[in-house]
Structures are given as C-alpha cells and as structure tokens.
Design brief:
eight-stranded antiparallel β-sheet; three-stranded antiparallel β-sheet; 313 residues; 17 strands
C-alpha cells in the first residue's frame, strides 16, 4: 500500500510527513492536517518573527505570561532538556546566539559551506554556573509561563524534537507514519514497518551510515550546516557552550542519537556533541553515530547507560 507524503518548507529547512493506513480516514487529509499543525507551530514559535507568540513572551515584562498550550509545552521542554542534560542543553541562550551572529533565519547551506573548520582549540562544553532554564516553570491551571523578566527562550532543535512528538501523538492510530522536522524524525505505527534512515555526511559527501528503525526517534545535531563568520571574523555555528556562551568546538562536529522520543533524541544528540570525544558515546544509550572533526565516523551501539546529570546550582 502506498502512503501519503508531503514535503514542505518549515523551521528554516525541509519538513516531511508520511502517513499510511490512517484508521478509516483519508491518508492525504491526515497528512495535510499534520502539515497545518507544523506550519502553525512555526508561526507561533519562531524567534525570527517579531509577532510570534514566542517573541512576545520573550519581550513581556511580566513574570507570569498567559501562553497557549503549545508555548507552555515548549517552556516545559526547556526545563526537561536542561534537567536531562545536567545543564548542557540550555535553551535560554538567545542573547548569546544573537551576539554570535545568528540574528536572522539561516537555512542550511546559506551560511558558510559545510567544511572542516580548524578550531583554535577543542574542549568539552560545560554548564553555566547560573542556569536560567531553572527559573522557567509552567502553571497549567492559570495557563501561564512563569519566569523572571528578561529570561528568553530559543526553541531551536528542542522545539523541532518536541513538535515531531506532538504530531506523532496524532498519528499513533495509523499503520505507519514518519515525521521529519528538518532532521528530527519520529517514526511509528501499528505495522512496525522499518525505515532506512541515512546519516548525512556533515561535510557534504556520501551518507556516513544507515540506520533501520520502525518506532522511535532520531535526531542529529551538528556544527557545519548552519555556520557563518561571526562578528570577530572567526567561524561560528549554532551550538553554544553554555559556560562561555560562544560556539562550541569540542572535537565532535555531528552527533546522531536514537531515542524513544524526538525531544529525548534531540537532547541526547546535542549533549553528545557538547561532551566531546571522550564523553559523547555515553549520551547515546539507544545507539547513534558520531562524526569527529577529522572526519572519523564512530557508530555507537544501543548498550550504554546514559550519564547521570550533575546537580546544577
């Protein structure tokens, strides 16, 4: 049986929805509904649109701000990401990413071309001493996001993983589905149909590995696709070291993580990249692929125990 397939521009990249056997409904209609959900989420959560709900939250001088269920879910995901990663994955660094030069939407391939950048040094990233994500909470009864004024959320990859999960929830009754939010994938369906997933070469060559997965999620975090020259003329990219607030050069340029959910896959991929070569594999308990800055590919099997995050002050 063929499946409905929609491919469209969203989140500054390419998004795809695949649907088969939509429980008595038309597959194409269900796919269109999923597309509408994702396009609406992009409009609400884009930090590049001054009128988006996220941008209004970031500007709001109140401590408790009325927020839609979608924005409340993102705010909760920010806390989850910080907690799971021990502060390595910090989605409250909007000021720092803008200072690094990422102010306008930058689609992959429109900045510096994928290339091996020789960093002046490489070292594992580290959490911030005072982590702002700790200060964000959600009051579901009041329908608000609560945080100190001035704390700003940058959804980034966390939002993509979260939204892949959100759409997957609406597709669970299908025989098979796949949601690809610019490389953050969520797969499932009653048929347990395996799909082949290519792990792309961060430097633009042939795929470096192929995964096979029927249910779950895959996310990739990398430093070569959204890259540019910073205000100081040095290479920069979107993955920041929370400790310094600057682009992280850790010795890992791309990390792909398999996990049960899109949000967890995104967190684990980013934490792996930020941890550097010695600690990266420990963040891939369900398996994954690492690409080192010299181009070496490391395939990690699903046999590890994720590290326990250290307490963050």
């Amino acid at each position: 049986m063929s499946e409905a397939r929609l491919v469209f521009d969203c989140f500054g990249g390419t998004v795809a929805v695949h649907v088969r056997g939509a429980a008595g409904r038309d597959d194409d209609e269900v796919a269109r509904e999923a597309r509408a959900t994702l396009l609406d989420a992009h409009a609400r959560l884009s930090r590049f649109e001054a009128g988006s709900e996220l941008s209004r939250l970031n500007r709001d001088p109140r401590e408790a701000v009325p927020a839609s269920p979608l924005l409340r879910r993102l705010a909760a995901a920010v806390g989850t990401a910080g907690e799971l990663s021990g502060g390595l994955v910090d989605a409250t660094m909007l000021t720092e990413i803008e200072a690094a030069g990422y102010v306008a939407s930058l689609a992959p391939g429109l900045g510096a071309p994928p290339q091996r950048v020789v960093a002046p040094f490489s070292s594992p990233a580290c959490k911030r001493r005072q982590s702002a994500w700790h200060s964000i909470s959600v009051d579901e009864e009041a329908g608000t996001v609560v945080r100190p004024p001035g704390v700003k959320i940058d959804g980034g990859g966390i939002a993509k993983g979260m939204l892949a999960d959100l759409v997957a929830e609406s597709l669970e009754g299908c025989e098979a589905f796949a949601v690809d939010c610019c490389g953050d994938l969520r797969l499932g369906g009653g048929s347990s149909r395996p799909r082949r997933i290519r792990v792309e070469d961060p430097f633009g060559g042939e795929p470096v590995h192929e995964l096979s997965l029927a249910t779950g999620a895959v996310a990739t975090s990398g430093t070569t696709r959204r890259a540019w020259l910073g205000p100081d003329g040095r290479p920069a990219h979107q993955i920041l070291d929370p400790r310094s607030g600057r682009p992280a050069f850790t010795g890992i340029v791309q990390a792909t993580a398999v996990a049960p959910s899109g949000l967890l896959a995104e967190v684990n991929a980013k934490a792996a990249l930020l941890s550097g070569p010695e600690g990266a594999a420990d963040w891939l308990p369900f398996g994954g692929v690492l690409v080192h800055d010299g181009g070496e590919v490391e395939v990690v099997g699903a046999q590890r125990t994720a590290p326990q995050p250290a307490a963050t002050p």
